[in-house]
């Protein structure tokens, strides 16, 4: 896997020094091996700090909304899931495609540092990656799947939009079914589902991380920030508000959400927000035919489309009573 | 000094909770936060940190303080502030306790914030020494001793025994009432303190250099060009501010009910784009300015107004929770390195 | 308070499209077909004007049931508004059900301007269902209730 | 429990005067018909309509007025639009006073004063000017340069014409941005007018107006030979508490609600330019 990082750095340097682009959007080293941040590099020297490893989970497409509107061309390294978001943004005219040089970069699943801690390894000073396993601190070998983000365990995505690919090893798809938990919830009784969501959503602190990180949340002014909307609020002053916020947010990205999983990754309280998005995705698939947002931009979005024979709102099967 | 075997800890919680309201780290759906202890809830004092800090108990995220009833012309003002009786908080870490000192300087300064003061006066705080500090902790930089956190009652959890050492009279009164405790000597605790100190000294951030962050460097620091790079990835969410034990910005908002208006105050974040927005203009227009405001406030503005006390306690929550791994340590290192 | 709850009269909010269902309600009124007094009608230009926040906001403000009425599919005054509304409401209702909120509390009915009788029947039925379900507890905002 | 500053008093609107197409002056008293609280010139108060919002407004009336307080408010946002829709007899909530106010009893005392205002910027200055009129013996010559977009936008035009211009040692210079029928005074922007008038530099200047006007007027004053220590201004910012706790109105380490809103120019220079 270290070969990939070398190739990534070479490619970034080449793109910058050849003048093909004037800046590179990628990831920058942090204080530890796991706290990498998205960053823009303007020179080959600055690329010293660039990094690409299993902790580069952030979806760079979000930053392209602003970056692509600036002067000059920007090179970006997108993982398969990022390309879906980027494609969707192209469809919604939120990015300027001409200003972006997309390098589709290999991804074997990204890590969650909390999952490392759960295995009991303690402080993670270094991680050597292999295709199936990781070596922590040069001594403890852990199965790669044990430390992957949930979204990577179910990921079956391949790059959908790129100018060039940077893939050394073929990507292994996740084995798990992404709708498994949705189905489990549907099989619960209504009371159980209510209790589940009540407990989960009551943790919400309305930090808006899920909204601000979401590449589908591109409104210049969110309805929840707009005092004139009568629903703006800064805190969950009542249990109703957390439901309102999350239902409406998920609804607003329904049919546009590419299931990149960023909302769940960033939630400080670990609320499984992807389960809301996946419910919409699974409903759309069931009611209106298979649809994957961001995959094919020629296809009409499910909520901007209709057929005369659509299912009636009173007739869906729904979860158990 | 008193003690109780850790396996019997539920007895201690139970007895405390029967005397007064007990708040402590409670695990709910995988997340640890301070909540009221009740039988059947999952108490956890072994995990180092709660997501939201202890400030939530003194300056809650939402605090409803006044109601207005209107009939078109007349307004009735109804004071709805909650008046607390004595309550206990268990398992407060040294950094969180120090954060209360930082908040005190804001809320107890004239004019005193009555809601905060009421809770502050009535809390009995059981602190807990940090057995296993995390790599993201840097409380030592702010002269906080996590091996001896003080408070009303100082607790140590070592070798399967919880030691309780009352520090204040308030703490002693409460501890002496408890029947589940046995008398203890201080050897294990002293040993424990030394162990913790050694651990803390070895932490990667324990020797951060704060020397540039002084009031006289205010303008120089403000104009540093590094802010642009530091804030580049900032999403403008409020995670860092809401989990931060010392962030105290709030908003006052009205909620229209079916028959009146409830006014409450709630946490707000200087990272939000509309934080300073006025009808005509916004003095902090871009995310860089808002990012800079937050860290300048913690490291320069606040200390210059409060005798050099930093508005950061090194708890490391932002280090762990920032979605894009931006944090105060990176700011300190970047700006401190001239 | 207990006694008050016993005779709790459910509040029902009906969003009616201007062109068909609102006229249908009008017809029901002028033909002296009764529908429950606790149904509060909100006129909207088209069923697709109804944003999911409207439905939730109605619950927040104390509604026990929310019903959306529009032109029959194919008869929309704006050609296709109700088709979009249909998709949106299906997804929203399914989500509410997923969150454990009783699905009977929300409903969509297509009522034309000529169907005064249907309007009255639908509202009576819906009111009965809501009455049986009782007070809306799962999507309530306590601040609006005191 | 001690009193809570965030819990407001009730104010009754006893008079509404329409000054310009978008500025109204509201007269507010307490429920008992008296002033809700005493204040100093330049201080502010939080007005609110429950359910709409709360905002900081400078108190336009002079503290020497013992009967009521006045607020000149320009319609520019949500709360101000609601206020403009109110009628006499309606109630608002009010709390204060907040801020440091102008140093009328210290730095200003015995000085010749120059007031420069643009548009609604006259509101906070009117309080000082009227205070000085009522304590005439303590101050020297008063010059007032006041400009607005048009004749109709001059706030308190009647008071200026009928009262201020007739005071002894009061020089009032009015200007509007563009030529207008029925106007035979000066036409032009405030900064250039200040230079034209060529006011002696022994004055203590007080500036208030839109940021762009402040910037250029300050330049003009410096060119005339004024020192920054002679020039005062008053800032505005979004505020929620008024007592330096809510954390949003700081410029550098100074809170506008508590350490301001009145700043001397040399003090402001030492602070970041985020206002």
Short description:
Chain C has 146 residues and is α/β, with parallel strands linked by helices. Chain C is built from five helices and four strands, in the order H-E-H-E-H-E-H-E-H. The longest helix of chain C has 18 residues.
Folded structure, characterized:
The complex is a heterotetramer of chains A (321), B (338), C (146) and D (275). Helices cover 34% and strands 12% of the residues of chain A. Chain A has 321 residues and is α/β, with parallel strands linked by helices. Chain A has 2 domains: 2-110 and 157-166, no CATH class; 180-304, no CATH class. In chain A, strands 1, 2, 3, 4, 5 and 9 form a 6-stranded mixed beta sheet that branches. In chain A, strands 6-7-8 form a 3-stranded antiparallel beta sheet. In chain A, strand 6 (127-129) and strand 7 (133-136) form a beta hairpin. In chain A, helix 2 crosses helix 3 (80-91). The radius of gyration of chain A is 20 Å and the shape is globular. Chain C has 146 residues and is of the alpha/beta class. Chain C is built from 5 helices and 4 strands. Chain C has helices at residues 2-6, 21-30, 52-60, 81-98, 116-133; strands at 12-17, 39-44, 65-70, 106-110. Chain C has a 4-stranded parallel beta sheet with strand order 2-1-3-4, sandwiched between helices. In chain C, helix 2 packs across helix 5 (116-133). Chain C starts with a helix and ends in a 13-residue tail after the last helix. Chain D has a 7-stranded mixed beta sheet, sandwiched between helices. Chain D has a 6-stranded antiparallel beta sheet with strand order 4-3-6-1-2-5, with helices on one face. Chain D has a two-stranded antiparallel sheet with strand order 13-14. Classes of the chains: A alpha/beta (321), B alpha+beta (338), C alpha/beta (146), D alpha/beta (275). Chains in contact: A-B, A-C, B-C, B-D. The B-C interface holds B 255, 257-258, 262 and C 61-62, 143-146.
